[in-house]
Amino acid sequence: MQRPTLSTMAELLKPITWFPPMWAFGCGVVASGVPLAERWPLLVAGVLLAGPFVCATSQAVNDWFDREVDAINEPHRPIPSGRMPGRWGLYIAWAWTVLSLLLAAQLGPVALTAAAIGLLLAWAYSAPPLRLKRNGWWGNSACALCYEGLAWVTGAAIMALGSWPHPRSLALALLYSIGAHGIMTLNDFKAIEGDRQMGIGSLPVRLGVAGAARTACAMMLAPQVMVALLLWAWGSAAQSLAVVGLVVAQALMMRRFLQDPRRHATWYSGFGVPLFVSGMLVSAFALRGLAVAS
Q1: How far apart are CA 141 and CA 159, in angstroms?
Q2: N or C: which end of the chain has fewer CB within 10 A?
Q3: In this structure, how many other beta carbons lie within 10 angstroms of the beta carbon of residue 202?
Q4: Which PROSITE patterns match (predicted)?
Q5: What is the span of the domain harbouring residue 87?
C-alpha cells in the first residue's frame, strides 16, 4: 500500500494553523493567575493538546471531507493532488482524534471535556450528516468556539488543577469566541467559487462579498468593546483602555478591507488579526491581576 511521506502528513496537519488555539490556551493560563513555574509540565502538555493534537485533528478532518471542494479551490493540497493516497487522510484524522483524547485524559476531567467538545465540533463542522460548514453561521461558530473559547477554558482549567475557571474568565473566553467568528469569515473570501459550486453556504456566498465583510467586521469589533467595558467595570482601567486602543486601530484598518474584501482579506488577516489576539493577552493579564489581588 502506498503511504504518504512525513512532509505530506505534516502539510495535512497544517502547523501554521496551530497558533490561534495555542495562543488562546496561553491566555487561559495567564488568566488563571497561577504562577507558571509551579506547573510548567502541564503547560507544555496543554499547548501540545491545543495545537499539534486537537487543532491538527480538525485540519485533517476538514481536508478529508473537503477534498472535492479543494480540488476546485486548492488542488495543490495533499489529498486532491494525490500526494496523500487512498484513505490515508481519514485514517490520520481518526488516529489524531484518539491520541488527542488520550492526552486530554491525562490533564483532568475539564480538559478532557473541553477537548472532547472541540473534537466533536471539528467532526461536525466537516463531516456529514451535520457538516456545519454548509452554513456559515453555524460552521464559523463551531470553529471559533473550538479555536478560542475551549482552548482558553482548557488553559485556565489545567492550571487550576481541574477546577472550572472563574466566571470572568469564562465570559472573556465566550466574547473572544464570538469575535473569532468574524476572523473565520475572512478565510472564506478566497473560496467563494468552489463553495458556491459545492453548495457550501459560507457568509460571502450567503450575504454577498460586501455583506459578509461588514458582518465580519461587526463580529470582530462588538465583542472587544464588551471586553473593554467589562474590564473597566472590574477595575482594570489600564487594560480596558489598551483594548480600546487596539479596537480603534483595527477599525481604521477595516476601512481598507471593506473597500475590496476579496483582495484585502488576507492582508487584514496578517495585520489586523494580530491586534485582536493582542487584546486577548491584555485581557488575560487583567484577569491575572484581579486573581492575584483577591
Answers
A1: 26
A2: N
A3: 25
A4: PROKAR_LIPOPROTEIN (PS51257)
A5: 8-293
Residue 1 lies in a domain: no
In a domain, 242, yes or no: yes
Helix (H, G, I), strand (E, B) or coil at 34: coil
Dump the DSSP string for 182-244. HHHHHTTGGGHHHHHHTT-B-HHHHHHHHHHHHHHHHHHHHHHHHHHHHHHHTT-HHHHHHHH
CB 130 within 8 A of CB 147: no
> Would 148 be classed as within a structural domain?
yes
Residue 69's pLDDT band, with cuts at 50, 70 and 90, is confident
Q: Torsion-angle region of residue 235: left (phi > 0), alpha (psi -120 to 50) or beta?
A: left
- pLDDT level of residue 162 (50, 70, 90 thresholds): low
In a domain, 2, yes or no: no
DSSP 164: P
Would you give the distance in Å from CA 262 to the centre of its chain? 21
pLDDT digits (tens, 9 = 90+) for 190-202: 888 888 888 889 9
If one counts the domains in the chain, the total is 1
What pLDDT does residue 154 have?
92
User: pTM for the complete prediction?
Assistant: 0.93
Write the pLDDT tens digit of every residue in 240-274.
Answer: 999 999 999 999 999 999 999 999 999 999 999 99
Helices 109-126/150-159 angle, 10° precision:
170
Nearest CA to 216 out of 246, 242, 178 is that of 178
pLDDT the model gives residue 74 = 86
